[in-house]
DNA sequence: ATCTAGTTGACAGTAACTGTCATATAAGTA
DNA sequence: TACTTATATGACAGTTACTGTCAACTAGAT
């Protein structure tokens, strides 16, 4: 990683830190881009060079999870059923989504409830990659058969439901993120996603990641 | 319906017509609000009084379906299982989503692919109403039990998948909207959503609305 | 006829972006 | 080390979606 790349990442992180702090204090809508830039110690020009849009400041952190899910799914045992493998990948990823910075993010996000229904867990590119991987596992052609796409869509929607439930609830009273996500993911798994008449391998292997 | 209300609806419809025509011709991003207002024969001020945001011009038509789904679900037979009743309500609604104006809308929407992942089939208020109705059918408390919310979320996600597939495909080559939606909805239905150990009434009553 | 409430357009703002340009600094090359 | 090139920065001007206010107007009820 070159010095330029490191500095780029540093500036980006500093912008996020500044933005989340301001959002949490004053509310998403009340904070201007100029304030964020000032708080981050850069000019507005530079701010816009690093941030595509104000919304993305909040949405990008979750979207980054998409790449992780793809990587995890690629490493799953090949004989595992598509639905199980996908659910486990998502669940494992949600386990790593924690820490002090995440709490800052959550506090910031709570001030922008109108963005709640726009949580896309993943970029279109990563989603397409997931569909291909799932189709391969189901031994179907994603072009002619919509089932792989549907499974990915529903599984991500279920995970999203878990994320939203976790987001809405207060810090300590509600269930943890993995618990929220796992409960929702379970609803999508089932016979429907099998590759053929008698390939049930891996079907019972739910709940292996959480403590 | 008073004259004022009728005129209001008329202006609104005229704005939509103008906007869709311009979007389809020049692309969503290339069309300014002033152009739309001019084409609709009103001032920019009036435009903004009728349109919350440019995005909503495209998104509102689908969102209006939400009210219809709620109404349909309220009229479903009381002994029908929650998942079946909800699926049928959505499917019936999607049947009425057709006509020449819809084709204009589809053409307009195609020029704004970045809005595709923001298709919320329903407003938060209607969604909450659906959750209550579903919870009642499942005999569960929507406050403590997340299953009704999850069923609604997944069912809407499935419908959304159908809508997106229909949207993407060309006018005559792809499957019709109801077919796309029905195929997706079927994936969510199942034993999981039953109200109790032995209440299976209405469980087999899929596919009754489409020809 | 008149009073009230909702509608309209002109106008002046705000804030999120976009594009350009001169300047500075990291990285590759002689 | 010196030189060149690619990239980052900040100042600035512009665009556009959207908001708020105000005076003129019009439908609807009394």
From TrEMBL, chains A, B:
It comes from the Bacteria. This is HTH tetR-type domain-containing protein. Residues 191-211 are annotated as: Disordered. It holds the Pfam family TetR_N. The keyword Transcription applies. PANTHER family: HTH-TYPE TRANSCRIPTIONAL REGULATOR BETI, HTH-TYPE TRANSCRIPTIONAL REGULATOR RUTR. Residues 9-69 form the HTH tetR-type domain. Coiled coil: none annotated. Residues 32-51 bind DNA. Keywords: DNA-binding, Transcription, Transcription regulation. InterPro entries: Homeodomain-like_sf, HTH-type_TetR-like_transc_reg, HTH_TetR.
């Amino acid at each position: 990683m070159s010095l330029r790349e490191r500095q780029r990442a540093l500036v980006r992180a500093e912008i996020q830190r500044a933005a989340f702090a301001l959002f949490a204090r004053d509310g998403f809508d009340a904070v201007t881009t100029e304030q964020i830039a000032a708080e981050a110690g850069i000019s507005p020009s530079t701010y816009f060079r690093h941030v595509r849009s104000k919304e993305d400041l909040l949405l990008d952190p979750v979207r980054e999870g998409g790449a992780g899910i793809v990587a995890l799914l690629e490493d799953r045992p090949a004989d595992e059923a598509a639905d199980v493998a996908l659910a486990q990948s998502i669940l494992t990823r949600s386990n790593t989504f924690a820490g002090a910075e995440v709490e800052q993010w959550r506090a910031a996000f709570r001030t922008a409830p109108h963005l709640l229904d726009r949580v896309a867990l993943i970029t279109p590119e990563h989603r397409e990659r997931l569909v291909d991987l799932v189709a391969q596992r189901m031994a179907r052609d994603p072009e002619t058969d919509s089932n792989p796409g549907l499974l990915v869509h529903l599984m991500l929607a279920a995970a999203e439901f878990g994320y939203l439930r976790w987001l809405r609830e207060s810090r300590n009273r509600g269930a943890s993120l993995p618990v929220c996500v796992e409960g929702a993911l379970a609803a999508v798994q089932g016979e429907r996603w099998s590759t053929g008449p008698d390939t049930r391998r891996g079907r019972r292997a739910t709940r292996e990641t959480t403590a």
